[in-house]
Write a structure and sequence with these properties.
- This protein is α/β, with parallel strands linked by helices.
- It has a single domain, classed as TIM Barrel (Alpha-Beta Barrel), CATH 3.20.20.
- The protein has helices at about 10-20, 40-50, 80-85, 100-105, 140-155, 170-175, 180-190, 205-220, 260-265, 275, 290-295, 320-330, 340-350, and strands spanning about 25, 55-60, 65-70, 115, 120-125, 160-165, 200, 225-230, 240, 245, 270, 300, 335-340.
- Strands 1, 2, 3, 6 and 13 form a five-stranded mixed beta sheet that branches. Strands 7-8-11-12 form a four-stranded parallel beta sheet, with helices on one face.
- Bound molecules: calcium ion (CA).
- One of its GO terms (biological process) is lipid metabolic process.
- Keywords: Glycerol metabolism, Hydrolase, Signal.
- Belongs to the glycerophosphoryl diester phosphodiesterase family.
C-alpha cells in the first residue's frame, strides 16, 4: 500500500484510536516474585523498579486495624499455626479477624506455602525467596502508605496506590465495615479525588456499588474504582442467606451489556488473563474475547491479572514472559497489568 501523507491532526486522531498511549505496570503484592508478598521489603523493592502503582491487599484485625495480607487468613504466609495452635476455626484456618494487631505483628512472615498430605510446608513457588529466611512482618495499610509517600518524596517519583478491599462480604458478616475504614485511612493520607494517583479495587460488586453510591459521597470523596472479575465457581465473593454462604454469580458481567452495567459504578475492570485471551489461542492466532471490546465500549480501563514469569505460568500461546506481555500490551491493548515481576514489565515497556 502506498503511504499517503496525512495532516498531523488526522494522524493523531487515527493513532490514538489504536495505540494505548501509556499502559501501566501495577506491582502485584509488591515485587512479589522476589520477596515475600506484601512485606514492606517487597514494596520497597517494587518501588525501586518504578512501576506506576503498587498494590495493597487489605484485611481487618480483631481490633479493627487494617493490615496487608492477600488472604483473610494468616496461615499461608506466617508461623501462626506454631505460635497460636489453638486459635484455628473449625475449617482449620487462622483468620486475621480473630487476632489483634499486636498478635499479628508478633508473627514471622515468609514466602507463601501450602501444607501437603504429609503435613510438610511446601513453597507455592519453589524458586522464589527461600522460606523462613531473613525477617519479615505484616505491615499496616498506614505503614505502607507512609513508605510509598516517603519514597515519592525522597526519590521524586509519583508512584500510586492500588488497594484492594479483601472479602468485604466476609468482614460485613463478622460485623466489620472494612470499606469505611479503608476509605478513612485513604482520605487521611490525601487520596480523595479521581485525580489522585490511586485505584480502589474489589471483587465484590455489591460493596463496590455501595462505595460508589453511598460511602464516597458521604465522605466527600471520589476515587477511581476497579471491579475485579472472577468466575462464580472461584467462590471469590459470597452472599449470606442466614449462616449459609452461597457464591455470588458473576455471570451477568459476561453478558453483552455487563460492562455497561459495571461502568455505572466503576472506572475499570480487573479481569483474569484468560477472560481476555482465549486459552485455545496459538502464537499465530490470538483469540481476543468479547469482554475486551465490551469494556472499551463502556469506557472502562482494563487491568488484567496476574503476570508471572515462572515458565509454567507463561500462556501456551506465548513463547516467553515478554511475548505474553506483547500479546496483552500490544495486541489486546490493555491499559495496564498486575505483575509479580514489575521490573520485567517496566523494561519491556521502555524498549
Ligand atoms: Ca489483590
Amino acid at each position: 500500500m502506498k503511504c499517503k501523507i496525512l495532516p498531523l491532526s488526522i494522524l493523531t486522531l487515527v493513532f490514538s484510536t489504536w495505540v494505548n498511549a501509556d499502559p501501566l505496570v501495577i506491582a502485584h503484592r509488591g515485587a512479589s516474585g522476589y520477596l515475600p508478598e506484601h512485606t514492606l521489603e517487597a514494596k520497597t523493592l517494587a518501588y525501586a523498579m518504578k512501576p506506576d502503582y503498587i498494590e495493597q491487599d487489605v484485611v481487618m484485625t480483631k481490633d479493627d486495624q487494617l493490615v496487608m495480607l492477600h488472604d483473610h487468613y494468616l496461615d499461608r504466609v506466617t508461623d501462626v499455626a506454631e505460635r497460636f495452635p489453638s486459635r484455628a476455626r473449625d475449617d482449620g484456618r487462622y483468620y486475621a479477624i480473630d487476632f489483634t494487631l499486636a498478635e499479628i505483628k508478633s508473627l514471622r512472615v515468609t514466602e507463601g506455602f501450602n501444607v501437603d498430605e504429609k503435613g510438610d510446608k511446601v513453597a507455592g513457588y519453589p524458586n522464589r525467596f527461600p522460606m523462613w529466611k531473613s525477617s519479615f512482618t505484616v505491615p499496616t495499610l498506614a505503614e505502607e502508605i507512609e513508605l510509598i509517600q516517603g519514597l515519592n518524596q525522597t526519590l521524586g517519583y509519583d508512584i500510586g496506590l492500588y488497594p484492594e478491599i479483601k472479602a468485604p462480604w466476609f468482614h460485613r458478616h463478622e460485623g466489620k465495615d472494612i470499606s469505611k475504614a479503608v476509605l478513612k485511612v485513604l482520605k487521611e493520607y490525601g487520596y480523595d479525588s479521581k485525580e489522585d494517583k490511586i485505584y480502589l479495587q474489589s471483587f465484590d460488586p455489591i460493596e463496590l456499588k455501595r462505595i460508589n453510591d453511598e460511602l464516597l459521597p458521604a465522605m466527600k470523596m471520589d476515587l477511581k474504582l476497579v471491579q475485579l472479575i472472577a468466575y462464580t465457581d472461584w467462590n471469590e465473593t459470597m452472599t449470606y442467606r442466614g449462616e449459609v454462604a452461597e457464591p455470588y454469580s458473576y455471570d451477568w458481567m459476561f453478558q453483552s451489556d455487563g460492562m455497561a452495567k459495571v461502568a455505572v459504578y466503576a472506572d475499570g475492570i480487573g479481569p483474569w488473563k484468560s477472560m481476555l485471551v482465549d486459552d485455545e489461542s496459538t502464537k499465530d492466532n490470538i483469540i481476543i474475547k468479547p469482554l475486551m471490546k465490551q469494556a472499551k465500549d463502556a469506557s472502562l480501563v482494563v487491568h488484567p491479572f496476574t503476570f508471572r514469569a515462572e515458565p509454567d505460568r507463561i500462556a501456551a500461546y506465548a513463547t516467553s514472559f515478554e511475548d505474553m506481555l506483547d500479546v496483552f500490551y500490544n495486541k489486546v491493548k490493555v491499559d495496564g497489568i498486575f505483575t509479580d515481576y514489575p521490573d520485567k514489565a517496566v523494561s519491556f515497556l521502555n524498549k
